[in-house]
Amino acid sequence: MLFIDENEDQIHASAPRDLIPQFSDILTKGDIFHVEKFNVSKISGTYRPIIDGEYKIYFKNDTIVKRCEDQTLPIPLYKFSFVEFNEIPNRCNQPKYLIDIAGKLKAVTEIELVSKRNGDTSPKRDLILENM
């Protein structure tokens, strides 16, 4: 999950797989919540959906999530960190950060199976974008 506040600050949040049913009914995209009793730690993994994010929220079994009554607070629904096309090659050695780009869709390739490090295969499809 990605949370965003009224200052457009974002933080990555996750819950252990066995706790997802506890929160899935209340957490609705676009709604405003009050969250209590969670852990915060420095991000150490390779997956970082927020470029300037150094910390991550971890839900626990006693984490409290309440939908706020006032849903009119000025909190944006989305935040993007666009990167110019010519900057994309500079990111190829920084795979932990996700980037947002916009362009004209030129082509979509057929699905192919690619090998993963653990020996499994995964379906992959390439999208070819044109810089507009």
Short summary:
It is built from 1 helix and 8 strands.
Explain what this protein looks like in three dimensions.
Pfam families: DUF223. This protein has 132 residues and is mainly beta. It folds into 2 domains: 2-67, no CATH class; 85-131, no CATH class. The chain is built from 1 helix and 8 strands, in the order ββαββββββ. It has one helix at residues 20-24; strands at residues 2-4, 10-14, 33-42, 55-67, 104-108, 112-115, 121-124, 127-130. The strands form 3 sheets. It has a 4-stranded mixed sheet, with no helix packed on it. β1 and β2 form a beta hairpin. The model has no long low-confidence stretch (mean pLDDT 86).
